[in-house]
Automatic annotation (TrEMBL):
Species this protein is from: Verticillium longisporum
Keyword DNA-binding among record annotations: no
InterPro entries tied to this protein: CNOT4_RRM, Mot2, NOT4_mRING-HC-C4C4, Nucleotide-bd_a/b_plait_sf, RBD_domain_sf, RRM_dom, RRM_euk-type, Znf_RING
Keyword Coiled coil: yes
Residue ranges of domain RRM in the record: 121-207
Protein's cellular compartments: Nucleus
SMART domains: RRM (SM00360), RRM_1 (SM00361)
Pfam families (alphabetical): RRM_1, zf-RING_4
Protein name stated in the entry: RING-type domain-containing protein
Length: 214
């Protein structure tokens, strides 16, 4: 059986045509002598807009043969009790679905812990060789003629990439902008540009997924 296939049981309390629940007046309504029961809405639709035939025996509907079963007080009480029961069941089912959804989301977040995800306002730049002292570098990179020209900067982090002989080869620079649009503008301007004899590379940076419990 394919995943979308299913079995279901017909509910005698539902109209077989529209599958809506039969109310108390519908349950007492017998439009055809064969006993096939439909709701009054579907009956009127068949009679006025369709062929006017009973879906079961194909007999023409006749106003003279319509029967109305007398509803007893016990049936009224049972109907009201069933309504309350169904309302409670729907509310319980809804709560269970919400709990299952929260559990699934919680499990998904657990699976993401430690996974690196793209941060759209973070730019990672390589290939830059500094021309100023290390203690001045962060201030310099924030200036309007450097990364500051692309937007407001939240944070700059620098990692030293060393060559095999132990000397600094180049820097890895992480620039966190306030807006992701500023990060994109920075990447478009910086990526592929020259820095002396080096070509700068710029791309969106990644960060470890961090879930903050509420």
């Amino acid at each position: 059986m394919a995943p979308q296939d299913m079995f279901f049981e017909e509910d005698e309390d539902n109209c077989p045509l529209c599958i809506e629940e039969l109310d108390l007046s519908d349950r007492s309504f017998r439009p055809c002598p064969c006993g096939y029961q439909v709701c009054q809405f579907c009956f009127n639709n068949i009679k006025n807009n369709m062929n006017g035939l009973c879906p079961a025996c194909r007999r023409p509907y006749d106003e003279k043969t319509i029967e109305w079963k007398v509803v007893t007080p016990e049936e009224v009480a049972e109907f009201s009790a069933n309504i309350r029961k169904n309302q409670k069941k729907r509310a319980l089912d809804q709560r269970q679905k919400e709990v299952q959804k929260r559990e699934a989301e919680k499990e998904n977040r657990k699976n993401l812990v430690g996974v690196r995800v793209v941060q759209k306002n973070l730019v990672y730049v390589t290939g830059l060789t500094p021309t100023v002292r290390e203690d001045e570098l962060l201030k310099t990179l924030r200036k309007p003629d450097f990364f500051g020209q692309y937007g407001n900067i939240q944070k700059i982090s620098i990692s030293n990439r060393k060559s095999s002989d132990g000397h600094n080869q180049s820097l890895g620079i992480y620039v966190t902008f306030e807006k992701k649009e500023d990060a994109q503008r920075c990447i478009q301007a910086v990526h592929g540009s020259q820095n002396g004899d080096r070509v700068l590379r710029a791309q969106l940076g990644t960060t470890k997924y961090l879930h903050v419990s509420s």
